[in-house]
Write the structure tokens for this entry.
Amino acid sequence: MIDRLVFSSAVAGYLFKGKFRLAEGHHPRGGHQVPEDFPAICVASMADPASDSQIIDYLHGLGIGQVRLDYSYASPDDHTARFLERLLGDDFRVLLRLVPPPAEARQMLTGEGQERWRQFVVAALDRFGNRVEAVEVGNTVNRRSWSGYETLEHFMAAWTIAYHELRRRNIVVAGPNVSDFEPPLNAGFLSVMTRHGTLPDIHTDNLFAERAIEPEFFDHKVLGRRLAPLHKLNLVKKARLLAGLSDHYAVGKTWSTTAFWTIKRIARRIVASEEKQADYIARYMVLAAASGGLDRAYWGPLVSQREGLVDDGTGKEAELELVAYYGSNNGRLEDYRVRPAFHAFACFSRLIPGSRYVGKCTAAQALQVHEFERGEHRLHALWTTNTRVAELRALYSAADLEAAECLSRDGQLIEDIPDLVTESPLYLRWPLSRRVAVAGDVDVFPNVRVDGNRAGGRYFNYRDAQWRGLVFAADREQADQLIAALHPDRLAPPEKPAVLRKSRNIIWTLPDPRQPGRLLAAKKPHRLRLNKKVNDYFKPSKGLRSWNGACQLLRFGLASPLPVAYFERAEGKDTLNNWYICEYAGDVPSVRDFFSAFARGETTWLGIARKDFFARLSAFLLRLHGAGTYFRDLTGGNILVHIETDGQLSFSLIDTGRTRFFNTSTPLAKRLSDLKRTCYKLDWPGRVEFMTLYLQGLDRRFHAINRLPFHLFDFKMNFKRLIKGKKRVAANAGLIGSLPLCNDLVSLTARLLT
């Protein structure tokens, strides 16, 4: 009872005494030394003895000598003890985490349960204790369903037994392994340990930043997205607050003993999930080192399908939460595959540990430039937050860039220094004797978005006295070739037949300078009414909006003709003189063509049965909206249908300039707003069939309220046609009469009543 009061008092004190306050805590402070042994990783082996050598080869490839190994009741008789002997024999510094099975943790208040735990601890320490670097007791103690510790008393019973056995042998004690960032709970555990005189030598926490989506972001799970800027709890501040707790309780060191980003969570939104995992690990580790709050940061697990630096090849997630217990690797060694994150971690481990952190060189949150000094080198780690882009030559002088050695996120030498900084980190390195100036007021390009993990090339910046823009190309030579051919001074709309559309926008085809015989498509505003000109003046240019939308869609794995370039005025706004250029999709049908055919009574169109087409299109649109996309102009004509020779279908999106993106799945009201446009050419029985299929994917029905946006859109479109003196589109509403407006209103009322 007293322990619970102490725990609760410490939790309340942390919350109500303003312990989250740390002036400018989200900004890293320079001047500290990053430990040589800062990076570490969680490892396991398996029954196959060859696994031991394979894992050790991976560790040598990473350049890491510090590992954490989980050890439980079955470990003395299985591969874990064998692997531990191998690690110790090869002089790895092992943090041995002693883990009772959850069923045993639940028995920790019984005499029999405590005796089994004591015997296990004694046997493990007698066998390995004098050879390991430290022993961690505790595994996700704030997650009872994972650890099995049902109450504070359960954990403290295990902690006290292990602590005294460790102290008796003068072994370094680490704990309690709180999972994620919940510092009031850390304070509670450390306060109870203080009462018992059993404080650890190393304060451990699993400092994840995954839930914040990006390691630079303020954690929206604390007070919500709107209030997140108030507490400013990013990775840097979290690490510093945990270190503050260690100082308060006079615990010598602070270690984060597990962190990872799961491929599954990344892939919910980003198709290049493994590349993004590699970006995140580089950014996380640099920020963790810059924070000064952590003495060591473990990544892990090394091998797993869902989160490992090495894919185990099983295609299946581990049965247990590996943050709670990582006892064995799965799969077969011949199926193991190193992911890009492996190389990103190896690059960090080679460049940063042992350096002195000088400080952050820019004021912007979306643009990160961190300076380190190590040995004979000065090193800058640079990146932007996701989708953002900044000009490298605005940050540094031409002379400094000329003198720099440029390395990719994965440690590969880049001979031709990029024009731009993106979400995939870069490292610039100079001799230590060279003083490098950084323009600290530079920020990311306003309103510009890119897919920073796009394969096949990189982005090149263009700017002259009149024009600015971006080009995507394989290399500098190809970028120059594209700029020469697509420069606005030479990009005039032709006469027919190259013109594809000429209305509010003019769209035409032109030769692709990269490959004879291929075409590009160019889009330029053609005419705007006065109110549209005023409205567009306060927005990014149409060319840039189309570029942004296409880049974001590709990032989500949603096809759109590949963006090649955009151009706009370098200074001021010009609502008509801006261009977007992409690859030409070809003469392919659209969803509008299919829906029009089905509305005429066709059951098959271009060899595709109506029912099959509905199923495939609804799956595509569910994925579109599930990724948080609100297209805002999702007419059937803007969804192209690609029919493969084997009859398979795929879809791509054009006219992307109005698209908006949510951080979560698109709300139902926005989905219906999109789909009412998609279904406009489809008859009502077809709409009901298609929308029923779509909404089944959301476990919803196409009832009267969900049909209302479709009726109102029909009414709106027929009213507009009436005003313009055009023939009504009666097929959609199923109404024909001399008073179309009245008929629409009557029909709408009747449909709502039924």
Residues 683 and 732 are 5 Å apart (CA to CA). The chain has four domains: 2-8+35-354, 357-431, 460-583, 591-753.
